[in-house]
Amino acid sequence: MPYTPETWPIGAALLNFTGTTADGRDRTTAGPEAWKQTLREVRLAGFDHVDLTDSWVRPADLDAQGRRRLLETARSYDLAFSDIAVTRKSVITPDEDKARENMAYTKRTIDAAADLEVPMVCLGLHDPFTEPQKQATWFWLAEGAEDEETPENREKAATRFRELGEYAAERGVSVSLEMYEGTFLGTADSSVQLVTAVDLPNVGLCPDIGNIVRLHREVEDWREMLTKMLPHTNYWQLKNYFRDFDPATGSYASAPAPLALGFINYREAIGMALEAGFDGPMCVEHYGGDGLTVTAMNRDYIRGILAAKLPEE
Predict the structure, then answer these.
(1) How far apart are CA 47 and CA 300, in angstroms?
(2) pLDDT tens track for 199-255
């Protein structure tokens, strides 16, 4: 049954919640008492879905009992998981031992998705922060690691994502590949080339164009990026930024913004997605400040657009 504006799964990202408890414990292994406060706040903000970001809790590192307890804790607040986001664990990172470790971790995440009744796992090719990124006010203002642009490395990415996609399909899980600068998913053309090379029905794209428009350099037009990627899109992380460019000095500026106020016109973007046939889960993200409150505003904004754009019943 098609989604309505009220039932479309829009998950709260947990980027603003830490993976360490106030007393210094790993939140993943600390158990339900360390998970409840976050999930309670998400529910009180009006969400019915959570985008399970592994920087908060790593479901891959929970055993069967731990996953069951996580699912029960979410259900106790009437929450479902719409996606698991695997962050900064590239399967083609230059350290081959680390790449194999990331492959194994991703497969465990897919196993966890099946256990947690999560339909989607979002993967990327971005590596952990560099030291300059850790020191920057906003990490995207400093130089990060980049994929080595060779045919062999590109084929490695396609082969490994294909392996993960096949693994996920056996478990009834879909995979989405997240757009991110400096990687083979860093432009619309490159992203489409990669997902086409993977060539699996359960593997699509996450056109997180916010990751691109925040960069302090010339970037692709967001409409053109979406036009190319939306036909391949199965999941969407949405965030927005203020963006400015002064041609007199050549300087750029950007800062996080609510969806309705930033550089990208999401009323138009969501309309484009619906016209392209997009029907996957969404995730609302925001960096800085009270991210949960801003993402709740973003959720309501999206539901209003869906009400205006979807056919009347």
Answers:
(1) 10
(2) 999 999 999 999 999 999 999 999 999 999 999 999 999 999 999 999 999 999 999
How far is Cα 42 from Cα 48, in angstroms, rounded to an integer? 8
CA–CA gap between residue 173 and residue 11 (Å, rounded): 17
Of the candidates 54, 61, 68, 62, the one whose C-alpha atom is nearest the C-alpha of residue 121 is 54
pLDDT over threshold 60, residue 1? no
Do residues 266 and 299 make contact, with C-beta atoms less than 8 angstroms apart?
Answer: no
Report CA-CA distances (Å) from 16 to 19, 58, 61, 218, 234: 10, 15, 21, 28, 24
How many residues does the structure list for the chain? 313
What is the tens place of the pLDDT at every residue in 150-202?
999 999 999 999 999 999 999 999 999 999 999 999 999 999 999 999 999 99
- pLDDT given for residue 70 in this prediction: 98
Q: How far apart are CA 169 and CA 202, in angstroms?
A: 7
Q: Is 242 helix (H, G, I), strand (E, B) or coil?
A: strand
Q: What angle do CA 34, 36, 38 make, to 5 degrees?
A: 90
**What amino acid occupies position 62?**
L
- The overall average pLDDT reported for the chain is 97
Maximum distance among all alpha carbons in the chain? 60
51 phi, psi to nearest 5 deg: -90, 110
Q: What is the mean pLDDT of residues 44-65?
A: 98
Cβ–Cβ < 8 Å for 122, 178: yes
What's the CA gap between 79 and 160, in Å, rounded?
32
Phi, psi of 60 (to 5 degrees): -65, -30
